[in-house]
Amino acid sequence: MLFSDEENNIVIAEDAYLLKGFLLGQGEPLLLALSNVILQAPLRHMVTPGGYNMSVAMTNCGDWGWVTDETGYRYSLRDPVTNNPWPVMPEIFKKLAIDAAKSVGFNHFEPDACLINQYSVGSKLSLHQDKDEVDFSHPIVSFSFGLPAMFDFGGIKREMPKIAILLEHGDVLVWGGRSRLNFHGVRSIKAGEHPLLGPFRFNITFRCSH
Ligand code: MD3
Ligand code: FE
Question: What is the CATH number for 106?
Answer without folding.
Answer: 2.60.120.590
